[in-house]
Design a protein that fits this description.
heterodimer; A: Nucleotidyltransferase, domain 5; 5-stranded mixed sheet; 15 strands; globular; B: 96 residues; alpha+beta; two-stranded antiparallel sheet; 3 strands
Chain lengths: 357, 96
């Protein structure tokens, strides 16, 4: 049993606990898998892998070539699969598109090897649990309000994968992880938004307690797909450009302009949904009248001019409460994994302390 | 992780080999995240205390007349005894 200090005054106390009991955070995203592992109570190791794969014809690429070129791959049921960024590189060379274990924020059920690929990739990030068990807090999306599916099966599959590696799985809403990671200065009161590839997740917290959460399927992929359709271009090319070239503040190219149109549409759609739910929460929690902060994280936020465009759209929406601040997270791709880590650690600490009494 | 053979807990699917070199990795100072956890823990503890129902006030028992060596106490006891004797006589007189 780890000794728990009765009163906590500084993080040094927690550091000692973290050293004795490391927990792990895992962001299970459509585009990326990110892990956050405590190293000796002093450092947090963040590991990342692109959540994509590509089946390779053995007649074209020999396994030896894969090894020599340090390509990430797995041989499953005697079939060869390139993984992560290696899959991206090969897909570009072969002028084809990668496949994904997940789609729209949940497991992609049309990919029959998706689950095993996910399992291999998670294992490559966090390895097996140490002896005696270990908690791994993993992110799950909220149920989408604009699609007819839920996340129950998805949640169960990830829990199974982690259990098979010896972990005690702990599911945590993706957008609440953003709140835990970014809204400490506001006493964990405000709205966390995760703009992921598959879905956009939203959660309103009051002093660290989730008041509502929802998701929308109009995530990064939805935007890329629509821009590609409108301009008759390949979606993978649009995804590539969105991360590196697109400027939403000063759109110059056709792709820039189309991106701005779709981003504005998504912002307006999302902010109206938030405003509506805020009104309902305000009836039960009048303390929200003091105003809330909105913080955004996720891959899409990396686009140049994203947060400025989002602020601009927010000015056109009538919110029932004051928006004190609307800002981007500090570490966009790692926010969710860190939030999961914080949640696992906090839950563990409180549980142990209660059991000790 | 290189060249491992693991069951991966996926039924009859066999993972023959895995070769994943050079995973993108960085190490950052953990103190900010632990500070966040600390804030959250303190907040949760405060909330738990606030949510605990306030203990009902326990009424203080009325002070019982106590045996006393004082004159007042002696007279009280004598009065009480005289009352009991008078009650007993009354009951005998009424034939009960």
């Amino acid at each position: 049993m780890i000794s728990m200090p009765d009163s906590l005054s500084r993080s040094g106390d927690l550091s000692a606990i973290a050293r004795k009991y490391p927990v792990k955070g895992l962001d299970v995203g459509t585009m990326n898998l990110v892990s956050a592992t405590d190293i000796g109570g002093k450092e947090l190791e963040l590991r990342k892998i692109r959540h994509v794969f590509l089946e390779i014809d053995r007649n074209i690429f020999a396994e030896k070539v894969f090894k020599d070129q340090k390509i990430k791959y797995a041989e499953i049921n005697s079939r060869l699969f390139a993984l992560g960024d290696s899959a991206f590189d090969i897909a570009k060379r072969m002028n084809t598109t990668v496949k994904r274990p997940m789609k729209a924020g949940v497991m992609n059920y049309s990919e029959n090897v998706g689950e095993i690929i996910l399992s291999v990739m998670i294992h490559s990030l966090i390895g097996g649990a140490r002896e005696g068990g270990e908690v791994c807090c993993y992110s799950i999306p909220s149920d989408p309000f604009d699609a007819k599916f839920n996340v129950i099966y998805h949640k169960g599959i990830i829990a199974d994968v982690l259990s098979s590696m010896g972990y005690t799985p702990l599911a945590f809403k993706e957008a609440q992880a953003v709140v835990y990671s970014e809204l400490a200065p506001e006493q964990f009161t405000g709205i966390g938004i995760s703009f992921g590839g598959g879905m956009i997740n939203v959660s309103l917290n009051l002093l660290g307690r989730n008041l509502f959460d929802f998701a929308s399927i109009r995530g990064g992929d939805w935007i890329d797909e629509n821009v590609a359709m409108a301009l008759d271009l390949q979606q993978s090319r649009i995804t590539d450009m969105k991360e590196t070239e697109v400027d939403l503040l000063e759109p110059k190219t056709r792709v820039d302009k189309a991106m701005v149109i779709y981003f504005k549409d998504v912002f307006s759609y999302l902010l109206k949904a938030i405003s509506k739910r805020l009104s309902l929460s305000l009836e039960k929690h009048p303390e929200l009248e003091e105003g809330v902060t909105i913080v955004s994280a996720g891959g899409s936020v990396q686009s140049r001019g994203f947060i400025e465009l989002f602020r601009e759209e927010a000015r056109h929406i009538r919110f029932p409460v004051r928006i004190n601040d609307l800002r981007a997270g500090t570490d966009l791709l790692n926010t969710t994994a860190k939030g999961c880590f914080i949640n696992a650690f906090t839950k563990y600490y409180l549980k142990e302390k209660n059991e000790r009494r | 992780m290189e060249e491992e053979r693991k069951p991966y807990g996926c039924g009859n699917i066999e993972v023959n080999s895995v070769h994943i070199p050079g995973i993108q990795s960085e190490r950052i100072d953990i103190s900010k995240d632990l500070d966040n956890a600390l804030e959250l823990i303190l907040l949760m503890q405060k909330k738990t205390k606030q949510e605990k129902p306030a203990a009902l006030p326990v009424p203080k028992p009325e002070p019982m007349p106590q045996k006393s060596q004082t004159r007042g106490g002696f007279l009280f006891l004598m009065g009480r005894a005289a009352g009991l004797v008078a009650k007993a006589f009354k009951e005998v007189g009424s034939g009960r």
